[in-house]
Amino acid sequence: MKDVTQTVGGSSLGTAPFGWLRRSLRRSLRRQREGFTLLELLVVIAIIGILASAALPRFDAFRAAAYDARAQQDLRNLASAQELYRATHEDYAAALEDVVAYSASEGVTVAIESASATGFTAVSRHEAGSQRFAWDSDAQPPLTATAD
User: End-to-end distance of the chain based on CA atoms, in angstroms?
Assistant: First the structure.
């Protein structure tokens, strides 16, 4: 293929079909070096602020759900530890201190409400969560949640 070059005023514009593209790119590169105007920056900052204000309430709901999941999982872990305790004793543990294989997560409050040879009940909630969870080993399903 033959290279066709145009010359205008002694300067080469490149191959004929793509000379306009090179000129256009050079012009746009010159414009990019000039930077942004103050108005453009203020508009971008305003848009980011609006998006952030819309996202924050949603973020708080996700955090509360994560704290609730932690409290729920701690109650399930307590149920497993209670079953281990019952395997070596005649009844379920009536106090958390008796359940050696269990420790609550940070911020989660767990309490054993009652215990007998046939079952136990316990409650848990995270201080930053939005729900309270109850475990009744005699019920189906054993885990229930109530809003605070």
Answer: 78
